[in-house]
């Protein structure tokens, strides 16, 4: 290689180095700005997660996917039981997500009651894969600054963690649009509960669950751990299958596994999937989510049933 070629190669390396430095500076500056927005976002999934792991204080915590998020009205539990309540539901999440959030919450606060809304395919491989993505996207913004979450990220999704350490923008990739739109959203959020107005449902129930459900061993272990942790802390646990407007199914591999596990710990499983009082199209926003009217009726039913158990327990104790 002659002198001219060496000079040209040197300039290319220099320019490449400058580009890398500029990228690093821009990435960190934008990352710091996103972190500020992230820490001060007024509502949404970010605030729900942050509340549960940083300053939980309520008597009742509700866990589950979007079916929990839209189906459990906290006000019904406060009215019936006199307990404060927070809905910790999250879109596309499964027990893999809930188990991690539970562990972090219990380091700060021990509630009186935990409700887990259990989906019919909660422990399936397909649902777990989606939930792992949700979990990674939720944890990464914390992992780049917090050693506790960094340890979790390294264990659960090491490759994603390394990408986030290299680029803070990557850590916030799923949060950028929600953060930018946080001041423009019209979504109603009440203690984590997000009511859905109206109905898109036709009178004929949807086919659901016909395809084969492959079990996921990591999800099953997470479910076992969730139940054991709650029981160990002497918190009352209610695992519930909420109403769903689909064609009748007797059970599923996930439900069978859950019932067997819960029986070992004398934890109740309440199945409201096809409850006749709620199995009506006018109570559903879509085929798997209750609307505001349906959620109010369902939440009142669950809250009053828990209250009856409370009253019966108190009577026996006295």
How would you classify the helix and strand content by structural class?
alpha/beta
CATH superfamily grouping:
SGNH hydrolase
Strand order of the largest sheet: 2-1-3-4-5
* Tertiary shape: elongated
Tell me the count of domains: 1
Which sequence of SSEs, written as H and E, runs from N to C?
Answer: HHEHHEHEHHHHHHEHEH
Explain this structure to me?
The protein is an alpha/beta fold and 318 residues long. The chain has a single domain, classed as SGNH hydrolase (Rossmann fold), CATH 3.40.50.1110. It is 55% helix and 7% strand. It contains 13 helices and 5 strands. It has a 5-stranded parallel beta sheet, with helices on both faces. Helix 6 (125-143) runs antiparallel to helix 7, helix 7 packs across helix 8 and helix 11 (217-232) packs parallel to helix 12 (253-264). The mean pLDDT is 87.
Please describe the topology of this protein.
Blueprint: H1 3-39, H2 45-54, E1 60-63, H3 66-71, H4 74-81, E2 85-87, H5 95-106, E3 113-117, H6 125-143, H7 147-156, H8 158-166, H9 168-171, H10 176-180, H11 217-232, E4 236-241, H12 253-264, E5 269-271, H13 292-317
Parallel strand pairs: 1-2, 1-3, 3-4, 4-5
What's this, in brief?
By secondary structure, this protein is of the alpha/beta class.
């Amino acid at each position: 290689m002659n002198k001219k070629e060496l000079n040209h190669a040197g300039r290319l390396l220099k320019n490449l180095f400058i580009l890398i430095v500029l990228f690093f500076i821009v990435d960190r500056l934008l990352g710091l700005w996103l972190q500020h927005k992230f820490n001060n976002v007024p509502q949404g999934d970010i605030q729900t997660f942050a509340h549960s792991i940083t300053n939980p204080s309520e008597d009742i915590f509700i866990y589950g996917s979007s079916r929990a998020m839209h189906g459990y009205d906290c006000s019904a539990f406060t009215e019936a039981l006199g307990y404060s309540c927070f809905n910790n539901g999250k879109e596309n999440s499964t027990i893999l997500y809930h188990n991690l959030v539970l562990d972090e919450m219990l380091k700060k606060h021990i509630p009186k009651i935990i409700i887990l809304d259990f989906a019919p395919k909660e422990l399936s491989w397909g649902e777990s894969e989606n939930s792992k993505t949700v979990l990674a996207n939720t944890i990464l913004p914390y992992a780049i600054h917090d050693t506790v979450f960094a340890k979790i990220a390294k264990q659960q999704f090491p490759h994603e963690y390394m990408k986030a350490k290299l680029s803070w923008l990557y850590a916030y990739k799923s949060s950028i649009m929600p953060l930018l739109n946080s001041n423009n959203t019209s979504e109603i959020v009440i203690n984590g509960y997000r009511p859905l107005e109206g109905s898109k449902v036709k009178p004929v129930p949807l086919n659901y669950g016909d395809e084969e459900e492959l079990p996921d061993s990591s999800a099953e272990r997470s479910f076992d751990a969730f139940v054991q942790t709650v029981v160990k802390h002497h918190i009352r646990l209610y695992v519930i299958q909420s109403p769903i407007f689909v064609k009748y199914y007797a059970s599923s591999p996930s439900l069978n596994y859950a019932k067997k596990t819960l029986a070992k710990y004398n934890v109740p499983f309440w199945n409201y999937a096809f409850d006749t009082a709620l199995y009506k199209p006018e109570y559903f926003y879509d085929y798997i989510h209750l609307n505001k009217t349906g959620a109010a009726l369902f939440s009142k039913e669950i809250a009053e049933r828990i209250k009856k158990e409370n009253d019966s327990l108190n009577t026996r104790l006295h």
